[in-house]
């Protein structure tokens, strides 16, 4: 699962080795890494970006594992949920109705609810791919 998920994250995030402001104004570097250490003018190596990706992925996985039903999902659905945590961090917990639908196996409903979110409006293509993976239970890309 991890190799496919890393491939998805790299595709979704892209790689920038110099700090930039994302669409929300957050300073970002590498594969979508943000934090107080990311400041204007910061430059990274490929190795630094890869390490941050692994660290950020571990953090996203940790958040996903706090959901007691997470491991009951199939691999593509788990990866999709981790992708969401990677992008949004603990803000995913605000998707309570979407998470309830996912927990209860109402995957099409989870997709429909997710598509109504601000997240889906801000990152339309990514949200559609991730939510379709949740709905179908199959790898999207």
Tally the beta strands: 3
What are the secondary-structure elements, in order, as H or E?
HEEEHHHHHH
Which geometry do the CA atoms define? globular
Estimated helix fraction: 55-70%
Strand content: 5-15%
Rg over CA atoms, rounded to whole Å, is 15 Å
What's a quick, concise take on this entry?
By secondary structure, the protein is mainly α. The chain has helices at residues 2-13, 46-65, 75-88, 96-103, 107-115, 118-122, 124-136, and strands at residues 16-21, 27-30, 33-34. It has a 3-stranded antiparallel sheet.
Topology:
Elements: H1 2-13, E1 16-21, E2 27-30, E3 33-34, H2 46-65, H3 75-88, H4 96-103, H5 107-115, H6 118-122, H7 124-136
Antiparallel strand pairs: 1-2, 2-3
Structural summary, described in words:
The protein has a three-stranded antiparallel beta sheet. It is globular, with a radius of gyration of 15 Å. The chain has helices spanning 2-13, 46-65, 75-88, 96-103, 107-115, 118-122, 124-136, and strands spanning 16-21, 27-30, 33-34. A hairpin with a 5-residue loop joins β1 (16-21) and β2. With 141 residues, the chain is mainly α. The chain has seven helices and three strands. The mean pLDDT is 96.
Provide key terms for this protein.
single chain; 141 residues; mainly alpha; 3-stranded antiparallel beta sheet; 57% helix; 9% strand; globular
